[in-house]
Amino acid sequence: MSQPTQAQIFAALSAQSSGSFKRSQPSTSTFESLGPDALNQLTTSDGIKGKKTNSRRLICPRDGCGSVILLEGVGELIEVEGEVLPHDPTSPFASPSSPSPQYYWLIPTGPFAFENIGFSRPDKSNLNPLPAFTPKDIPGEIAGKVKYLICAECDLGPLGWSFDGGKAGWLDVRRLRYGEGKS
Ligand SMILES: [Zn+2]
C-alpha cells in the first residue's frame, strides 16, 4: 500500500483547480435523466392516503443557478390529464411529451412553503390561458388571473403556475432539477 507523495497531491490539486476556482455545484438530476423509474425515485409515500411527496429538494434547472425552490416533503405529486404550461420553443425546457398523464408538484399552502420562488405578473390580456383541466385552488371554481412561478434568482420560467388571490402553487416535474437522494 503506497501513500501518495506530497508532489502527487499538489499535482492533483492543481489539476482540479485549473481554469477557475469556481465552486462546483452540488450534483443534481433532471427528471429525464432518472429514466422510467423517475417518479418512484422522487417520491416518498405516506402509506396512509397514498399521498406522495417529493423525496428530493427541487432546484432551478438553469445551468449555474442552483437556487433551491422547495425542500423535501413539501410538494405533493399529482397527476393531470395533459400538459398545462405553455411551451416556448426557445426555452430550455423539454418539448411537450406524448399524451397524458403529466405530473406536477402541488404546494397547497402558499408562497412561504417555498424556499425561493418568483411570480410573473398576472396576465391581464388573457385571463384564462391555461387548459380547462388545469387544477385550481378550489375545484370547479373560476380561478383568478394566472401568475406563473419563476425562479427567484434568475427568472427562468414558467416552472409552474398559481392564481391571483389563491394559495396553492403547482410546479412541472419536468421543469426542475433534483438534489441527490439520501443514501
Ligand atoms: Zn434560477
TrEMBL record:
GO terms for biological process: post-Golgi vesicle-mediated transport; protein transport; small GTPase-mediated signal transduction. The keyword Transferase does not apply. Pfam families: Mss4. The keyword Transport applies. GO terms for molecular function: guanyl-nucleotide exchange factor activity; zinc ion binding. Residues 16-32 have a biased composition (Polar residues). InterPro entries: Mss4 (IPR007515), Mss4-like_sf (IPR011057), Mss4/transl-control_tumour (IPR011323). Residues 16-52 are annotated as: Disordered. Keywords: Guanine-nucleotide releasing factor, Protein transport, Transport. GO terms for cellular component: cytosol; membrane. Signal peptide: none annotated. Coiled coil: none annotated. PANTHER family: GUANINE NUCLEOTIDE EXCHANGE FACTOR MSS4. This is Mss4-like protein. It comes from Kwoniella bestiolae CBS 10118.
